[in-house]
């Protein structure tokens, strides 16, 4: 006969689970911040070139620029004690 699984513990388990979820969700942002240039000039020039060439429309170019600015200004919080 098998025993039923024990119920999850209260705060320590949920805190560690939330920490793991936070790390997983923050990983793509951290990679993008390492890959993207620190200066906005290459992003603006590249987006402008795509817009002039007709590869992307104006709303897409704007979204690219705003997305870049959002990733550059994203700050991670220090773990709370």
Task: Describe what you observe in this structure.
With 81 residues, this protein is mainly alpha-helical. It has a domain at 25-73. It is 65% helix and 0% strand. The protein has helices at 11-35, 41-52, 58-73. Helix 2 (41-52) runs antiparallel to helix 3.
Keywords:
elongated; 81 residues
> Could you name the ranges where pLDDT drops below 50 across 5 or more consecutive residues?
none
The number of strands is 0
Radius of gyration: 21 Å
Between the first and last Cα atoms, what is the distance in angstroms? 43 Å
Helicity, as a percent range: 55-70%
Report the biggest beta sheet as strand number plus sense, adding barrel if it closes. none
Order of helices and strands: HHH
Strand content: under 5%
**Helix count, per DSSP?**
3
What is the averaged pLDDT score? 78
Task: Indicate the overall shape.
Answer: elongated
Structure, briefly:
The chain is mostly helical and 81 residues long. It is built from 3 helices and no strands.
Please outline the helices and strands.
Layout: H1 11-35, H2 41-52, H3 58-73
Helix pairs in contact: 2-3
């Amino acid at each position: 006969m098998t025993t039923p699984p024990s119920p999850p513990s209260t705060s320590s388990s949920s805190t560690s689970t939330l920490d793991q979820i936070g790390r997983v969700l923050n990983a793509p942002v951290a990679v993008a911040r390492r890959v993207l240039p620190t200066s906005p000039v290459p992003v603006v020039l590249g987006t402008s070139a795509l817009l002039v060439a007709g590869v992307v429309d104006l709303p897409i170019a704007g979204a690219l620029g705003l997305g870049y600015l959002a990733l550059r200004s994203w700050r991670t919080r220090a773990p709370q004690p």
